[in-house]
């Protein structure tokens, strides 16, 4: 009989510290900051057994849906090169852009809608949103859809 999965959305401040450390260990491995599991668990301060016990069960809110499509709505200043920088960031982080649409600029701003496939992405969605918000000319970044 297949086990039924139940998921809970929990504020991180009430979680046991080990769960946050498992997530950080996974992030270090995913981004290449740590080359091996041994190195990653040593850097985050957890045991290998704790990592293996929880690695398939603990995920950041956005990471659970790897290999999914995420849509961003981004408000940009109407300046030369801003959209180019945005697309370059998606490329640098190995995001597969499925669709991109920009509205006609109005009052010096334009809204861009970008849908990406997350399968080969080299970061998590939280970090991606922060990186997008730091693009010169980005005014607002939000996740507007997930599949």
From TrEMBL:
<dbReference type="InterPro" id="IPR045865">
    <property type="entry name" value="ACT-like_dom_sf"/>
</dbReference>
<dbReference type="InterPro" id="IPR008310">
    <property type="entry name" value="UPF0735_ACT_dom-cont"/>
</dbReference>
<comment type="similarity">
    <text>Belongs to the UPF0735 family.</text>
</comment>
<dbReference type="InterPro" id="IPR002912">
    <property type="entry name" value="ACT_dom"/>
</dbReference>
<protein>
    <recommendedName>
        <fullName>UPF0735 ACT domain-containing protein H8695_09895</fullName>
    </recommendedName>
</protein>
<dbReference type="Pfam" id="PF01842">
    <property type="entry name" value="ACT"/>
</dbReference>
<feature type="domain" description="ACT">
    <location>
        <begin position="71"/>
        <end position="146"/>
    </location>
</feature>
């Amino acid at each position: 009989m297949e086990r039924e999965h139940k998921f809970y959305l929990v504020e991180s401040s009430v979680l046991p510290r080990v769960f946050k450390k498992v997530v950080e260990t996974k992030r270090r491995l995913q981004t290449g900051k740590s080359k091996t599991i041994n190195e990653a668990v040593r850097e985050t301060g957890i045991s290998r057994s704790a990592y293996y016990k929880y690695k398939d069960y603990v995920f950041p809110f956005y990471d659970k849906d790897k290999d999914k499509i995420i849509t961003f709505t981004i408000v940009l200043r109407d300046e030369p090169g801003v959209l180019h920088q945005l697309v370059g960031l998606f490329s640098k982080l190995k995001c597969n852009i499925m669709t991109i649409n920009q509205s006609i600029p109005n009052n010096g701003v334009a809204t861009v809608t970008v849908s990406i496939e997350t399968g080969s992405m080299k970061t998590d969605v939280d970090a991606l949103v922060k990186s997008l918000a730091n693009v010169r000319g980005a005014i607002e970044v939000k996740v507007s859809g997930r599949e």
